[in-house]
Amino acid sequence: MNSLECIFWLGVGIVLYSYFGYGILLYFMVKIKKLFQKEASFDPTFEPKVSLVVPCFNEAEYIEDKIINSLALDYPKDKLQLIFISDGSNDDTPDRIKKYPQVLALHENARNGKAAAMNRAMAYVNSSIVVFCDANTDLNPEAIKEMVKHYADPKVGAVTGEKRIITKDLENASGAGEGIYWKYESFLKQLDSDFYTIVGAAGELMSYRTELYKELPKDSLLDDLMQSMQIANDGYRVIYEKNAWAAETASANVGEELKRKVRIAAGAFQSMGRLPKAFNLITNFRVSFLFISHRVLRWTLAPLSLLVLLIVNSILACNVGGIYLLFLIGQLLFYGMALLGWYLANKQIKVKVLFVPYYFFIMNLCMYLGLIRFIRGKQSANWERAKRA
Question: By CB distance 3.0 to 4.6 Å, which of 171, 299, 358, 373 could disulfide with 341?
Answer without folding.
Answer: 358
